């Protein structure tokens, strides 16, 4: 049963006191099948449109995006493609390759196989894990372990007999959470913008786009500005901040965004990953510079956003850190109203779920 979202004051790990949006999320609200599995197009998925200043809420579909954008508006999209980053060990465990730190150095998570998915496994210890295909994974030390917490993520050494792409094509599968009954192919976890493999999980806010919708948006005078941010695993605990991630903002994207802002056009980020990347490349005045490296930026209402005017995103779990980012974009009153509407309606959560467009 779902309820009206309520504000809760809780202690954010490492950040002091912060407000989070708390609500009950029934299991049936979790989307376990791709929208297109029912014979529909991805861009037919439901989308709630909400305006910060008027508070208006409108029910729509992703295919309706051109109705809510103006010529000259810029959509910032993530070009990172999803890896088959889950490698079954063969003993009931599966290794999730989260973040590549160097040629043989990774952040990984060891989990327990359940159906075609996985559940947390918190009793891993340092040592070597034999992977299929003649590969070795050595768990070295916990990664960013917080006091009193069980170990989920590890720094690890990974030795492969071939290239990463070749190895994962043979032995990897998409990361899936929970005891999933169906094994969807890697293509179900890709977006039309994914060009550069590197994400452990799909940048799912762009999942509703089709090539036809992209063409329609461009024909209507809106512009796409690509960035790349390779996402790590999303199996974070409630309220846990996102970990550092690799990102690139090309010079052409920086120039495009700066010119659009100067001309009074809106910058709409497609997803929290695109938001994190473009905001990481901005100075205090909101001017974007070409950037490449690692970002540990955490966006919330205190820091606010300097570049992004709106965001297309999915529906996030109760007390998730992404809700703080959405509050920075849309404000808390709008977030409460939109989540109340979503919980009262047919909207679905998680990577195969539905969409939320926040506009100024």
From TrEMBL:
<keyword id="KW-0963">Cytoplasm</keyword>
<dbReference type="InterPro" id="IPR036100">
    <property type="entry name" value="QueA_sf"/>
</dbReference>
<dbReference type="Pfam" id="PF02547">
    <property type="entry name" value="Queuosine_synth"/>
</dbReference>
<keyword id="KW-0413">Isomerase</keyword>
<protein>
    <submittedName>
        <fullName>S-adenosylmethionine:tRNA ribosyltransferase-isomerase-like protein</fullName>
    </submittedName>
</protein>
<keyword id="KW-0808">Transferase</keyword>
<keyword id="KW-0949">S-adenosyl-L-methionine</keyword>
<dbReference type="InterPro" id="IPR003699">
    <property type="entry name" value="QueA"/>
</dbReference>
<dbReference type="InterPro" id="IPR042118">
    <property type="entry name" value="QueA_dom1"/>
</dbReference>
<keyword id="KW-0671">Queuosine biosynthesis</keyword>
<dbReference type="GO" id="GO:0008616">
    <property type="term" value="P:tRNA queuosine(34) biosynthetic process"/>
</dbReference>
<dbReference type="GO" id="GO:0051075">
    <property type="term" value="F:S-adenosylmethionine:tRNA ribosyltransferase-isomerase activity"/>
</dbReference>
